[in-house]
Design a protein that fits this description.
- The chain is of the alpha+beta class and 186 residues long.
- It has four helices and six strands, in the order ααααββββββ.
- The chain has helices spanning 3-37, 39-76, 80-101, 107-127; strands at 130-133, 145-152, 160-165, 167-170, 173-176, 178-184.
- Strands 1-4-5 form a three-stranded antiparallel beta sheet. A three-stranded mixed beta sheet has the order 2-6-3, with no helix packed on it.
- α3 packs antiparallel against α4 (107-127).
- The chain starts with a helix and ends with a strand.
- The mean pLDDT is 85.
Amino acid sequence: MTEQSKQPHDENMTQDVNQDMSKEEQADQSVTADETLDPRVLAEKLAERDQEILRLHAEMENLRKRVERDIENARKFALERFVDSLLPVIDSLEMGIQASENEHASLEKIREGSEMTLNLFMQTMEKFGVHPVHPVGERFNPDHHQAISVQPHEGPADHVISVMQKGYLLRDRLVRPALVVVSKNQ
């Protein structure tokens, strides 16, 4: 067969396929048209859609209320773990006060109990990311230190030679600067 003889055959096949598809499409369209024109079918579909919208609206409203409640609880109880961790420190301080009221209490025992309580308190603070700034011997850092005075010193200039009051960091954020005395050249 030559190319020219093949062409009419291919064209006839294409026309047959198009006619068959056209008949199927026409049948689908007539069914679809009949269904979409039926008021009962339309009313049912509309009712289904309305129910879906109502359910979605109710779900969204419930989700909004749940999120608001969770946020409110997070605000109310954000410090719950911190407070719970501080309760043993309070207990220890109360026992120290009771021990000091005992007529046989020695100053050394009271001091030892106070040191233990302080250690417990500092461990609790560190557990929550609070760390002291005690910079003796470090270079003066205005981001973490507040200079109270400057004194001549034999060591390098602009270094902390004494701390009047410790500073504290909450993770990497300064809560209170350390009050320091800074060295200067003699």
